[in-house]
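Hello,

Following up on my earlier ticket. Below are the two sequence lines again, exactly as submitted.
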Amino acid sequence: DQQVKQNSPSLSVQEGRISILNCDYTNSMFDYFLWYKKYPAEGPTFLISISSIKDKNEDGRFTVFLNKSAKHLSLHIVPSQPGDSAVYFCAAGGNKLVFGAGTILRVKS
Amino acid sequence: GAGVSQSPSNKVTEKGKDVELRCDPISGHTALYWYRQSLGQGLEFLIYFQGNSAPDKSGLPSDRFSAERTGGSVSTLTIQRTQQEDSAVYLCASSSQHQPQHFGDGTRLSIL
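Thanks for your patience. The regenerated structure is below:
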């Protein structure tokens, strides 16, 4: 029973364009959502978070959108850069995080 | 160092042996978490320590897995009588109260 799903295993985007990474969750009790970025052989690095009382949070090139009625979360990266190429995980919960399986983002120069 | 430190970075062992994985959290972080990531999968929660409270062990997959956190700092995850399905990257994270978790680079465990 996957409580957090990232349905796109991979995404390829041209440098300078927008990358949109999507995540769906099933548990309406989740009140905190995060995005992590992971390079090979490294641990996940925290990118951006949003609490359930908000519907948008922005940090530089990264914006996270939360649609609670649809139980849907997305990460927008604009403009995308080659260094953004990595695996992106969404996570949800509180103290215990439930992670999606990740989306591989490739930004082509 | 300033980040979460895990050792060893790689561990290869024979089926049936016991292994110990170590995590040094960020100084001052009261919460410590263990996760594992199997090939092609997301991170799977294993166990969570918060201060002096009893740990949340709800993610441990079997009684072969145990973890302790000594003095509210360093943690050791022990896997007894390892099986091939235990092969994964084991990740440790720490956090302050109500702050995002910060991860170490993990221990890649391979069971032959």
